[in-house]
Design a protein that fits this description.
The complex is a heterodimer of chains A (198) and B (385). Chain A is 42% helix and 20% strand. Chain A is α/β, with parallel strands linked by helices. Chain A has a single domain, classed as Pyruvate-ferredoxin Oxidoreductase, domain 3, CATH 3.40.920. A six-stranded mixed beta sheet of chain A has the order 2-3-1-4-5-6, sandwiched between helices. In chain A, α2 (77-83) links the parallel β4 and β5. The radius of gyration of chain A is 16 Å and the shape is globular. With 385 residues, chain B is an alpha/beta fold. Chain B has two domains: 5-195, Thiamin diphosphate (ThDP)-binding fold, Pyr/PP domains (Rossmann fold, 3-Layer(aba) Sandwich); 275-384, 3-Layer(aba) Sandwich (Rossmann fold), CATH 3.40.50. In chain B, 38% of the residues lie in helices and 21% in strands. In chain B, α1 runs parallel beside α6 (152-169), α3 runs parallel beside α4 (88-104) and α11 packs across α12. The longest helix of chain B is centred in the middle third of the chain and has 18 residues, at 152-169. Chain B is globular. The chains are: A alpha/beta (198), B alpha/beta (385). Chains A and B meet through α1 and β2 of A and β1, β9 and α10 of B.
């Protein structure tokens, strides 16, 4: 678990902060690593721009902020436009593919892009609210950064007990998608859409 | 004495600094808080209000900070361990009663989660610009103790320490957090209650007939008796003699005010806490505290990778200022670099203690964010020349 800088961003109400908390808890409580979460959000309860910064490491974290993220999860177009240029060369970009159109990414940076319709999957499970657990599952499978059991425990430990089962289902569904996802599946999908329109 | 297990949430938690501060207060035995919630400190009392009824205590949301800062002292004189929590604008309003706590020797803790100022400033963003206010904010001569945590874990550990120091010295202790440390989430380990050392109130052993409220006995800290215990009870902000009676003579004033100051300054070495690294071979020492110490750490690491002989001195106690340590170092290092989220406050103390024997580079920042590590590095390089 070498020092990894992660930014998770979207709008308030999507569970952006909770996603970072779950991953941080998995790393530092259910695994033997260290994690620091800082967050930025507006005064709105829902709908405002919202982002969390998560540093995971096998040594104590000194500087608490992300400077050049290795991994970025974006769940809104605004978040994509604002933060995507920060990504490190060769970094990983994970997007909510129904909400984010990946455009203008510098090819030379060789960023691996993965998309998932997390909100649609969550709706399929019965509650849009659990899209963050879908995302956390997808993240866990794709990055291999954390032990899936540790993250699963952190999900169970972080959500209200009456929604525990649903969140674990969401996590498993996201994890399943992540296990089979190939990089740049978003781009492929975008091209396919263009063809259909044409 | 060991902590009351009812207030100790033993285990590993992933919580922010504000929540950790609240757990520290509960573990230290705080059973009363009066507060007027303000960003970025609100989470401390929000959690306290939810938790304290379960351990047999009370939280009162007051009408303002003046009320909060005096009500908590009423709680102390009734026998409770008590604190209040605020940020800059509220801290300013509390100054009158911080002086009152110093004068009446009321053991209590004031938590200030610092944000950008002056006035309303930057409610949700960090600063460290209340450091001088913590020391000098109330009128008259007095001394306080101020601590600066740099992580959620320290927000827990040092809150307990703050309560313990307040009881040992019967002094208001300023707990100087900042917005980043308050809202940053990390692992916090809360030990079992029997591993947490608690300083009990310095209660009198004298009989009701013999007891004098401000008579000292061998040290500079008088013993206390609470209201309602049968002892004669009198608390006043007026200059008072050992019996607690107002006495307006220069002699009584001199004796009292010097003791209030001396009980802290004479114990400064014992109170001083700092974290140090690489001081032995250092040409330059970075002096920092709170969140800035973690930003400085990255600059120090980079500088050492480049072969520069840089040491670290992190102030955990800001007041009393550990001037002896600075004086010792000043004799053998070239310079001190002092980054802080203000326009140069503790840098003045470093400069004063160094007394011209080493240069002081004050690295200022008006608040709203933290320094860029590369800016600190640049000054380290300059200071090493």
């Amino acid at each position: 678990m070498q020092l990894t800088e992660i930014r998770i961003a979207g709008f308030g109400g999507q569970g952006v902060i909770l996603s970072a908390m779950v991953l941080g808890k998995a790393a530092s409580i259910f695994e033997k690593g260290y994690a620091t979460v800082t967050q930025n959000f507006g005064p709105e309860a829902r709908g405002g721009a919202c982002s969390a910064q998560l540093i995971i490491s096998d040594a104590p974290v000194a500087y608490p902020y992300v400077t050049q993220p290795d991994i970025m999860v974006v769940m809104s177009q605004e978040a994509y436009n604002r933060f995507a240029p920060e990504l490190k060369d060769g970094g990983t970009l994970i997007v909510e593919q129904d909400l984010v159109r990946v455009t203008g990414l510098d090819k030379k940076k060789e960023i691996k892009v993965y998309g998932i319709p997390a909100t649609r999957i969550a709706e399929g499970l019965g509650k849009k609210m659990v899209l963050n657990s879908v995302m956390v599952g997808f993240f866990t499978a794709l990055t291999g950064l954390l032990d899936p059991d540790a993250v699963r425990k952190a999900v169970a430990d972080s959500v209200p007990s009456n929604f525990r089962e649903l969140n674990l289902q969401a996590f498993d569904k996201g994890f399943e998608c992540g296990s089979t996802a190939a990089p740049d599946n978003v781009e492929a999908q975008l091209e396919a859409e263009t063809v259909t329109e044409g | 004495m060991k902590a009351d297990p009812r207030g100790v949430l033993t285990g590993e938690h992933f919580i922010d600094g504000d929540h950790a501060c609240c757990e520290g207060a509960l573990a230290a035995g705080a059973r009363f808080a009066a507060g007027y919630p303000i960003t970025p400190s609100t989470e401390v009392v929000e959690r306290f209000a939810a938790r304290v009824p379960t351990v047999g205590g009370t939280f009162i949301q007051m009408e303002d900070e003046l009320a909060a800062s005096i009500t908590l002292q009423g709680g102390v004189w009734a026998g409770a361990k008590a604190f209040t929590v605020t940020s800059g604008p509220g801290f300013s309003l509390m100054m009158e009663h911080i002086g009152y706590a110093a004068m009446t020797e009321t053991p209590c803790v004031f938590v200030d989660v610092q944000r950008g100022g002056p006035s309303t400033g930057l409610p949700t963003l960090p600063a460290q610009a209340d450091m001088m206010q913590a020391r000098w904010g109330s009128h008259g001569d007095y001394a306080v103790i101020a601590l600066c945590p740099n992580s959620p874990q320290e927000c827990f550990d040092l809150t307990i320490k703050a309560f313990n120091l307040s009881e040992e010295f019967r002094v208001p202790v300023m707990f100087m957090m900042d917005e980043v440390v308050g809202h940053m989430t990390e692992k916090v380990v809360i030990p079992p209650a029997d591993q947490i050392e608690i300083v009990p109130r310095k209660h009198t052993k004298e009989s009701v007939e013999e007891f004098q409220p401000y008579k000292t006995n061998g040290d500079l800290v008088p013993e206390i008796a609470h209201a309602g215990e049968g002892y004669r009870f009198h608390v006043t902000g007026l200059t008072h003699d050992e019996r607690g009676y107002p006495n307006m003579t220069p002699q009584t004033q001199d004796k009292l005010v010097r003791r209030l100051q001396n009980k802290i300054t004479s114990a400064a070495d014992r109170i001083a806490m700092f974290e140090e690294a690489h001081l032995k071979d250092a040409d330059v020492v970075v002096v920092s505290y709170g969140i800035t110490s973690r930003v400085a750490q990255r600059a120090i690491d980079t500088a050492r990778e480049q072969g520069l002989r840089v040491g670290k001195l992190r102030l955990i106690t800001a007041w009393p200022f550990p001037e002896k340590k600075i004086r010792q170092l000043a004799g053998r290092v070239k310079a001190f670099v002092v980054p802080e989220l203000n326009l140069g406050q503790m840098a003045l103390e470093v400069e004063r203690a160094a007394a011209g024997r080493a240069k002081t580079f004050s690295l200022t920042h008006a608040g709203g964010g933290v320094h860029r590590p590369e800016d600190i590095l640049k000054v380290i390089v300059e200071a090493s020349r």
